[in-house]
Structure formats: structure tokens, C-alpha cells
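Record type: monomer structure entry
Structure origin: computed from sequence
Chain ID: A
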Amino acid sequence: MSFTSFGFLLLYLLAMVVRWLPLSRDVQWPSFRVIAVLVLSWLFYAWHVPWYILLILFSTVVDFIAGLLLGATPQASILRRRLILTFSLTSNLALLGYFKYAGFLFGEVNALTGASWAVPQLILPVGISFYTFQSMSYSIDVYRGVIQAERSFARFACYIAFFPQLVAGPIVRAKEFLYQFQRRRRFHTRVFMEGCYLILRGLFLKLVLADNLGRIVDELWSPAAAEPHGVLALTVLVFFSCQLLCDFAGYVDIARGVAYHLGFRLPVNFNAPYIATSFSGFWHRWHITLSEWMRDYLYKPLGGSRRGQLRTYMNLFAVMMISGLWHGANWTFVLWGVALGLALVCERLLGLSRLQRPLLGLLIWFVVVQLVWIFSMGLFRAESLEQAMGITSNAWVGLIELLSQGYSIEQGADLITYGWWLTLPVWLFHLRTCLAEQTRIGLPAAAERSVYAGVMLAGLLMLYATGQQFIYFQF
């Protein structure tokens, strides 16, 4: 069920009825409301493949029981606590590994050995990478003593399956969500309007920018990868980088807006990543909740930066490679993670992640960071390594042509012009964010948002496009 479908609109209206009728001033949510939102969340998830609801139920039950057992086991019983946590993590990772990677692994083994093992033909459960990480973070936090075990199965299941962010994040920690069931619930106009603004912005990013850019990228991708049109290939990669940002950020904005209307706050997941002046800074702005998850539950347990420089570089590389594999069971994603891991290591090795740098050096490294990201989009979107290498090599030729001959494209000129106009709001938003961060000067919030809302509403009415699934639904 897509956020832009009438089915989701009906689900949202039912959730709002449960939430606000009758208006309640209860200190915490009554059980029937928790159960009602939980049922709606499970219905939302089962809409794709009904029996896959058993998968999320399995993860929910395993980690709920693991939490209770960890809560009842003294800290001194280290071995028993580790066994409980290992069972929780193994169960979740086994489920994720089978449905996401079994087909890839069997196919690679057959290709390497000449064997003829049957390759499982599985439909990837939507959102499994997100809710699995979310569920595992709960067990780890209870094990570490960061939070207390949740004793209400309904509240815990609602945390795992909360439908606004179930399919594509943000990845929410239990300590950020479960306490919100205890917050006083009253209607606040400001909070409601904030939710409306986020939903409007998300729809604009998705339906106007991402979907229209997606159609242009779909039409031009194969020619850009197969034919020696260097500047065209470079342009298509820029368009796809904007499409990916608008698609994913649009989903998160809608999720946060709907959560606001239901009385919950979800964390920010994007903060103008295309103004980042370092690779480390980029990951503080792009898919923030995944970056923080990898840092807290993978990078730091591996030793972080506490065991010498060589170990630090190895940890950074390993985390980025695993992040690439998390995105998909394909060598293109693995190499995407490897490339960005090497970029992080080189930046750390050269000391270029420091905040205090000469302006010229900062600008040069900013260009390098953004170019590396744009070229990495060839690996991210390509269906095969051959296609990825084709469009990436063509884009490198296009960069040289751009610097030596200027910008000139004949094939698909009208589409290219339209695409650049569609990217304009992305650049303006990043420019506005950069100016606000550097000068602390901006329009009054109400006036600024009124202008933005009017422009976005006009864009939705005139340039509405649909038919493209959210990109991160496949992860």
C-alpha cells in the first residue's frame, strides 16, 4: 500500500478517528487505541503479501520475549544474558538473510561451482531491512541497560509495526518511541499544522519532483549507459541523485507528518546532504537514522576509533561495505558500499574531515565529495555491473567534456531541460539551508512556510505524476 494511494488515505482517516474521536485528555493511550493502531499497522503491512505478516509477528514475539528475559536476568549473569541476546539477533538476521540474500547466494554459488542448486524465488518483504534493525536495536538496548524491557506486548508490537514508518523508516529507537505512549494527548493547532506541512512537502517531493525525474531517468538511463554520450550520462546521474533524495525524503516527511497527527514524533532523517563538505559530514545528513544505527550497533562494538588508526580504517570500511549489502543483494550495492568506504578511509587518512579547513580546501573537497556521491549513483541504480561500469565510465568522459567544451546535449534536449527545472527546488532548498546554517538569517517561520506551502500546492495541482513506487520499498 503506497502512501499516495486511496487505500492509505482511508487507513489514515481510520487511524485519525481512533486517535481523536472522542477527544481524550488521558495521560497515556488507552489500550483499545494502541490495539486499534496496531491492527491498522498490521493491515497496512499485510496489504503487500498477506502471509508476510507472520514474519513481522515472528520478529516482534522473539524480541519481546528476549526483552522480558533480559529484564528478569541479573546483570551478573553475563553468559545467560549473552545467550538471550544472541538468540534474538540470530533469529532476526536469519530471517533477513534468507528472504533478502538466499537467492543471491545460491545464484553466486551456482555460477562459481557449476552446481545446479535451486535458487529460491522469493518476493522481498517490504520494509524487512528497516523493522529488523529496529527490533534488534531494542534487544541490544535492553541488554546494555539503556532502557527497561517493555511489558505491554501491544505497545511493543505497535512500536515495531507503526505504519507511518514501517516500510522505509526512519529507523526509530525504542527509547525515542515507547515513552510517547505516556505523553498527554491534547489537540494543538501548531502540531497539527506542522504535520500537514510535512505531509504536503512529502507529497510535493514524491509526486512532483521524484516521480517526474524518475520518468526522465527511466527513459534516458539505458542510452546513457550504452552509448558514448558523456555529458548525458553525467546529467542522468545528477537527476537520479535528486530523484533518490526527493523520493526517500518525501516518504519520511509523509511518515513524520502522519505520526504528528497521531501524537508521535519521529526523528529527522535528512538534513540537506548535498551541502556536505566531507564524507563523514554527508553521513550526518543522509539517512541519519541508519548512519546512527551503524555507528552505535556496529562501528562502536567493532572498536570504533579506540584501537588505533589501522583498526579505525578497517572498521569504517567494514561498516560501509555492510551498509551497501544492507541496501540490496547485488554486487552493485556491495561495490557501492566499498567505494564509499574507501572514500571515508581516504578522508580520515588525509585528515580532510576536520571542520577547520582553509576556504579553498573546503570548496575543493566539497566538490570531490559531491562528485563521488553522484558517480556512486551509477552503482546504486544499475541492474548489473556491466551497466554500472558503462554509465560511470561515460559520466567520467562527460565530466572531461564539460570542463573542456562546456555543456551541450542534443539527445533528449527537451527532457533534459525539464529535468533541470525539476531539480531547481532541490538546489534552492540546499542553498537556503546553507545560508541559514552559516548566517542564522532567514524569513519568519510562518511567512516562509506559507510561501513554500503555496508553491508546493500549486506544483501538486499542475505537475502531479504517479505510478512510481517508493525506491526504498525494495530494501
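Annotation 1: Residues 43 and 308 are 49 Å apart (CA to CA).
Annotation 2: The chain has a mean pLDDT of 86.
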